[in-house]
# Entry
Amino acid sequence: MIGDKLAYVALVVRDQEAPARVLGRDLGLVRTDVDAGQGTTIPVFSVGESALALVPAGHALVEGEERPGVHHVALAVADLGEGQAAAAKAGVAQAGAASRVGLGGRRTVALDASRLSGVRTLLTEPLGLPTGRSEAIERIDHLGIASADNRAAVAAWCGQLGRPLESQQTDMEVMIPVESFTSDRHGVIYHTRPPVPVGGLRVAFVTVGDTDLEFLQNFDPRQSGHVDHGAAGTTRQDQGAIAKFVSSRGAGLHHVALKTPDIDGVLARLDAAGVGLIDKTGRPGSRAGRIGFIHPRSMGGVLFHLDERP
# Structure
């Protein structure tokens, strides 16, 4: 298998200090300032066995990307040469890719994102960061990926890279039409018709290290969904957000989910600290969990949510 541990996740942020305050001050995660080249450092927060790197927009580590969001994942390999050879054998190596110095002065090499369902992926020498956990956050629960084809994603990440498939599910929001017949003599009769789907996602979870990649595919391309920005989410809104992302950016990394033992308590703590929230309390989410989204304006433009589940 290639890189069975997720070394870090690189986030492009407009403002490093805003999300750093939330991750450090409000969520209690440990910060390490790591060499980013050219005499600069960037804040990196240990989360479980992995880490979140807050990279300023336009930085060379994210290939000059200016748009905020989840940019790439880095898989740790003890020997970069052996990792490259394994990637070539698996058919996911990037043609002509040469190793270069990356985060923490470690050598890295890029894999072919087009063969990994749009997920920008690097192999990297280990960073040697401590394991991170607080009373509010246990680890990265998953990384949300806007997917154009979940079957291809599972074939690549499970079939070619050997990562285990944790589970698959379908998230669906339906409308149930109700008719009423009101008579001044015979009373009221209610009649329901079969449910009508109004939004949905096909979801596949693939395990990498102590987290999962969550591939989210539009259930029905004829339904574009609806996005009411800043309002508490629904399955229909989630579908609309994924459909819009794939249409404008293509398939790729979309959001970060942090696992918490007490979602309502942590959301209340963030709210009291002045952190912008989309969801003030947990709502039903995947894998029998409850989720709540933080507003991207409080996280440097990156979409985060909390996840409490068994």
